[in-house]
Amino acid sequence: MSSALHPAQPARPGSAHLSLRSPDTSSRSSHPSPRFRAFTPRDLDGLLRRVSLPPAERLALRAVAAVLPFRTNAYVVDELIDWSAVPDDPIFRLTFPQAEMLPEPDLKQMAELLARDAPKADVLRAAHEIRMKLNPHPSGQLDANVPVHEGQRLTGLQHKYPETVLIFPRQGQTCHAYCTYCFRWPQFVGESDLRIATDDIATTSAYLRAHPEVTSALITGGDPMVMSTEVLRRYVEPLLEIESVQSIRIGTKSLAFWPYRFLTDRDADDVLRLFEKVVASGRHLALMAHFTHPQELRPPVVREAMRRVRDTGAVIRCQGPLVRGINDSAEAWAGLWNETTALGAVPYYQFVERDTGPQGYFGVPLARGHQIFRDAYAQVSGLARTVRGPVMSAMPGKVCVDGITEVAGEKVFVLHLIQARDPELVGRPFFAAYDENATWFSDLKPAFGASQFLPGLDPV
Q1: What is the DSSP letter of 190?
Q2: Is the pLDDT of residue 446 over 70?
Q3: Residue range 396-423, pLDDT digits in tens
Q4: Do 60 and 111 meet the contact criterion of CB atoms below 8 Å apart?
Q5: Is 237 exposed, middle or buried (0-12, 13-18, 19+ CB in 10 A)?
Q6: Is residue 412 part of a domain?
Q7: Among residues 331, 348, 365, which one ends one of the domains?
Q8: What is the rounded average pLDDT of the residues 170-187?
Q9: Taking 90 as the threshold, does the pLDDT of residue 25 lie above it?
Q10: Which residues, including other chains, have CB under 8 Å from residue 124's CB and lie 6 or more apart?
Q11: Residue 114 class from Cβ within 10 Å (0-12 exposed, 13-18 middle, 19+ buried)?
């Protein structure tokens, strides 16, 4: 394995390659280190003045940001968004609130409160009431997925599938920028009752030791890569002492939204050394990289960051949801899968927008989603056909839409579970009555008048 920290060759004039010095110099790059600068709701009105939106439209977007989280950064704003294409630019839609993300009555209520400078308590109360109508924790996240150890509910872990446990580090429950469609939006709105997080590393380790069927740990958030390497190490290194844990995954959007985390941040070299340590332990280390649109791969720094990560021996697996108005075309997905494959990453999942938050605005009907997936899949080589989709992370498990066909004179969806709470259901095909407007598993009904999709798999 080649080291991620070897001295790089000097960059040629005009080359996009960043010259990286030896780690012994404590320097990450021959270029000045960019300073991370976050933008939050208080900056929103000023940012929107770049495109001369009328005051009423700016107020509407502020109203959305009072309910659903908004955070971006200077890299996204200056390097990824094409402001000449706003409001249709996909990265703008990906990171900036859209008025239609809230039902019209709720949008009007929040806008009126902000317009008359209502007391903060009134704004917070109204925002909470609206959030509670948006299904903040779908698929049993706060009940069916929470494990118990020695009588204690481990509310910072999720154990939905026998082989995999999700760990939510308390210090990693934010992101370099928030996606407007994020199904984890309750993590970021400042309501502790909606948040999943832990800093109890000892109990997490004890639970994993007590459950040797768990072979894979997924550190997620938020985004664990917002943490310093010192803090990330506290969660990663104990996993290396647990023999049954064979793979470690880190869910992150940092390669897209702040690639300097792996290049010029003060501990960029340290985090790559940590990755090398995981790989040297014999574990499989995967960065579950969230890429949504090919535009996120445009800056050369993203490609350089991916190279450095891959040089540690870690694998980059790419996933993201199909989202209306952002990437709902076969061309976008084929471009994304081809580009990431060329960069040595592995296309992994195309998800269906989940049944929470602004799904009504961003959701794509399953029938159209399958056609987009199929058309994109036909445009890529076999190396990119590792991707699976469209996939719904629903209550029973990961439900994949395999196709649309006619059986015994009835038009049906053909589906199967890639992963399930009940392992007996994995990989067994089943049929749902065709519904061109269905956007989620709960919209589907068993085909042929049956009462169940499969024995043990009931309609929601």
Answers
A1: S
A2: yes
A3: 999 999 999 999 999 999 999 999 999 9
A4: yes
A5: middle
A6: no
A7: 348
A8: 95
A9: no
A10: none
A11: middle
